[in-house]
Amino acid sequence: MYIPTPREQYYEQGKSNSFLVAQAEGKLTAGQAARVLSRRLGVPVKAQDIEPLAVEFHHAGAFGGGKAKRVYFFTQEELAHITLEDIERAKSPRWGWKLGFQKNVRRWVPIIEEVRQFSGSEIKRLGDKFHPIQDDEVPAVKERIGWQLPPYCSDWRKAQR
């Protein structure tokens, strides 16, 4: 249940309403979830290692000037399904290309901005701007850096000069 809060109260409580609701529902923050997983799996797990596996986040911290930090939440049910392989896969870098935008005469056009290996946290931060590719596709996609994509297209094969 979401209840609007005046901005002054945000500064007092240091957390968004949705953050407080998630805590009230018994969801665990990434740090708390990491401790639970460390005990269950028998290996040390850091919060940043499991953040790419989260499906829910809320903001906490100072809200002025874009300083609010994302806090990732997990349910007990989600934690029960996370394995050591999932954590290793989330930590390992993956090849992909990043969607960028270039100013054309009157509009911004989508382009292939860069092609490289991205870490799990970068992939999570980029969201829809990250597009995974296979290892054998890397040289072909690298040739198309800076090429324009049709609007709303995420297929690198359709990029044009």
Structure explained in plain terms:
The protein is α+β, with helices and mostly antiparallel strands and 161 residues long. The chain folds into 2 domains: 7-89, no CATH class; 93-158, no CATH class. Helix content is 35%, strand content 23%. It has 8 helices and 6 strands; from the N terminus they run ααβααββααββαβα. Strands 1-3-2 form a 3-stranded antiparallel sheet. A hairpin with a 4-residue loop joins strand 4 and strand 5. The longest helix has 12 residues, at 30-41. It starts with 6 loop residues before the first helix and ends in a 19-residue tail after the last helix.
List the helices and strands and how they pair.
Layout lengths: L6 H7 L3 H8 L3 E2 H12 L5 H4 L5 E5 L8 E6 L1 H6 L2 H8 L2 E10 L4 E11 L1 H7 L3 E3 L5 H5 L19
Q: Main sheet, how many strands, which sense, barrel?
A: 3 strands, antiparallel
Q: In percent, how much strand structure appears in the residues? A: 15-25%
Give the structural class: alpha+beta
The overall strand count is 6
Please tell me what the overall shape is.
flat
What level of helicity do the residues show? 25-40%
| Whole-angstrom Rg | 20 Å
Question: What is the strand arrangement across the widest sheet?
Answer: 1-3-2
Please give the domain count: 2
How confident is the prediction overall: mean pLDDT?
A: 82
Outline the low-pLDDT stretches: none
Distance between the termini: 49 Å
Put simply, the count of helices is 8
Order of helices and strands: HHEHHEEHHEEHEH
